[in-house]
Amino acid sequence: MLINILKEIAQSNTHSYDSLAKTLNLDPGMVKQMFHNLLKLGYIITDDPACGDNQCDKCPVRCNKSKDNKNKVIITRWKLTEKGKKALEDHKTM
Amino acid sequence: MSDRTIYSINYLAQIDVTYIERVGELSKDYTIALVGNPNCGKTSLFNMLTGSKQHVGNWPGVTVERKEGSTSYHGKNIKVIDLPGTYTFSACSEDEIIAVNYILKEKPDAVINVIDSGNLERNLYLTLQLLEMNSRVVIALNMADEAEKRKIFIDKEKLSEALSTPVVPTIATKNSGIQDLLTMSINYEHSAGGLLKLDYGQVVKGESSKIVQVLLDKGLAATETANLVAIKLLEGDQYFIDSVKLKENPDLNDMVKAGRQRISDETGFDPEIYLADKRYEFIVHLIEECVHKDNTNTDDLTEKIDKIVTNKWLGLPLFFAIMFLLYQITMGFGNDFLGGYVDSGFVALGEYLSRVMVNSPELLRSFVIDAMIGGVGSVLVFVPLMLTMYFMISFLEDSGYMARAAYVMDKLMNAVGLHGKTAVSMIISSGCNVTGIMSTRTLDTKKDRMIGILISPFVSCSARLPVYALFSGVFFGDQQFGILTVSGIVFFSLYLLGIIVAVIAGKVLSKTLFKGEKSYFIMELPPYRIPTLKSTLIHMWEKTESFIRKAGTIIFGLVVIIWLLSIMPMGVEPGSADSILGKIGSIMAPLLRPAGFGSWEAAVALIVGVGAKEAIVATFGMVYGAGEEVQLASAIQMYFTPLTAYAFMVMTLLYAPCAASLGVIRRETNSTKWALFALFYSLLIGWTAAVLVYQAGRLFGFQ
Fold it and tell me: Do the Cβ atoms of A76 and B524 come within 8 Å?
């Protein structure tokens, strides 16, 4: 199951826990938990924008860096770590 | 066995649990620990159990809050510890280490695992890890009412049976089930062999039993936790590696390494992935057995919309259709309709000041009428256009659509072999190129970042809009194509051209100077929501205010410099070709002739535009001596044709990043060389594109 999540991230095939959960026939809550677990195990990391201060008012992608807490649109970007890429490669070669 | 059970005796027998009345045996220090995921209602439960008898401090050596309280059971004092909320026990964070340490080392008499009933799948992973620790666990199936509202029905008896531990439904916020939970936590006892044993498969079983033996022989783990330690060592859990001092036990270390290798060889997975997968498999099976969800209509509104909006084939055309519509409304309503009122205001102001200042010194009159009204005023007439556009942009942002736009563009970038994250930078650049360039910091490699930095300035930012609005208003403003305004179509074509040039430039750069690499990321998009009018208006005003502030500071500063250059040397006719400004423009003008706008005024406007793109309009307003847009429009019509106007807009779109963008490029690349490269390569692209538009247009017979 976890390897399938790594595959989906690698292929940028999804854009939400819900759609990923549907693809993998899992519960969205469990998918969130799996992301958390993969993060803890060092297979993925979150990839927050680092646009610097005072830029949010000019930015249309109101992400989780936005200071506008009430109206921000939270985007979490995930990416594979080297460990994640290796796990995927090793699994493919099996 | 007492018959004061909250469950039937049959049920308790079924799950291998015995109810024993312990009141008489309770020691003074009987302790219950509360464990659970964040936001599972654990704190509410703690508050209900302990009431005002709470003490808040810190866990030793860390800043994590330690909450302790007490409750009473049949007159006996029970200590309640609220452990930090955690999703797993992989012991990576301070919170998790505190929780694991407390459960394994302090050994509370009972552990209440608080579970959010509506999120059972997410919460059960921690439960399994907790049960593997051989703790006396009682599950509080909290927020049971919320789950019921969402039509999630949990068979608590089956769940309890499968987990071999009691399950008590609670609604902590309503003080429901709390007493039952307390009673069960104190009085139940597992029968021998009644504890949950997860089946990790033969290979893990074989390897862990060897490790268990060594752990017991060396006294590195107690009998009840040896199996857990062995599994955790095979999982590579650093907390347990440190706790058994694995490196100081070479034979055990070798055994763990060999075990991990064998699991990898036989299963094809890293041991940590394989073992976690087994837990998830168990949870999936458990949910199938114990939970019924009445979700006949599983697609919520967000999913339904996303099926269309982020569709592989429809996503991109829809995005461009939305932007097309946005520019249609911006030009039709914002510029032509609302802008007319501001125009009238500036006409009246210009006429009034001309009358009032008729006897004022020539220099002061020139400054006020030409520089202030003609320069800054010609930019400010576009405030209604900005308000209209920013209202719609803010609406799209607040609704969550712009995040989808970034996702859709990501697909496009990947399809042409570019790093997907540059798409996000491009979307951000449509607000402001400076922000877009800065957002490339998230790109992993220097090569990806360089591509992102070098293509972001091609995206049409809001600073270019006054130029488009002026020229498309003057030359295409009264033309309709069916129900569409031609000026809106021109606007959109420039937006589209910016993206196309950015993608082509990115592709060329990735094939020549920088080689790209595959994107490894996804975006978690939020649900759609209907933006509130207040929030949309606030965001609209924030953006417009920034435009007005810029007009009053940077553009005003630039206009003052141009004005000074336009009246020098002293005695020269202000704003003539003989002024310093005119002479500078005249040197550059011949280079622009192939593009069809080889006047010194156009050359000067483009030079000033490198300072800030809005200043192009201000410069025209000043050098043509126009106090408001109608005069400026007449002057522009004398120097430009529809074809040269379009070529000029293409040049404005592409020709050079503004000074602020160049500064950021220099800072982000830490290189003046790259800032100059960005300036000159975009100049070349802008000039080439403008010449192509003009020459091709002439070939096709356009004027």
Answer: yes
Q: Rounded to an integer, what distance in angstroms lies between the CA atom of residue B486 and that of residue B474? A: 11
pLDDT per position as a tens digit, B573-613: 767 778 888 888 899 899 999 999 989 999 999 998 888 88
What three-state secondary structure class fits B160?
A: helix
pLDDT band at residue B493 under the 50/70/90 scheme: very high
Domains of chain B: 9-190 (3.40.50.300), 202-293 (1.10.287.1770), 315-699 (no CATH)
Report the Cα B550 to chain-centroid distance in Å. 27
Name the closest residue on chain A to residue B273, using Cα atoms.
Answer: A2
Whether residues A2 and B121 touch (CB distance < 8 A) is answered with no
Query: Would you call A81 exposed, middle or buried from its count of C-beta atoms within 10 A (0-12, 13-18, 19+)?
Result: middle
Q: For residue B394, what is the nearest residue in chain A, using CA coordinates?
A: A60
Which residue segment(s) compose the domain that A65 sits in?
2-93
What is the Cα–Cα distance from B212 to A45, expressed in whole angstroms? Answer: 33
Residue type, B685: I
Q: Which two tokens stand for residue B311?
A: 């569709």
Tell me whether A46 touches chain B (CB under 8 Å): no
Residue B521, SS3 per DSSP:
strand
Write out the H or E segment, with its range, that includes residue B67. Answer: strand B65-73
Report yes or no: B479 and B435 within 8 Å, Cβ to Cβ.
no
Which CATH number covers residue A25?
1.10.10.10
Are B87 and A17 within 8 A, CB to CB?
Answer: no
Tell me what ipTM this predicted complex has: 0.80
Closest chain A CA to residue B272: A41
- Indicate the number of domains in chain A: 1
Interface test with B, best of A31, A51, A89 (most B CBs within 10 A): A51
d(CA B690, CA B652): 9
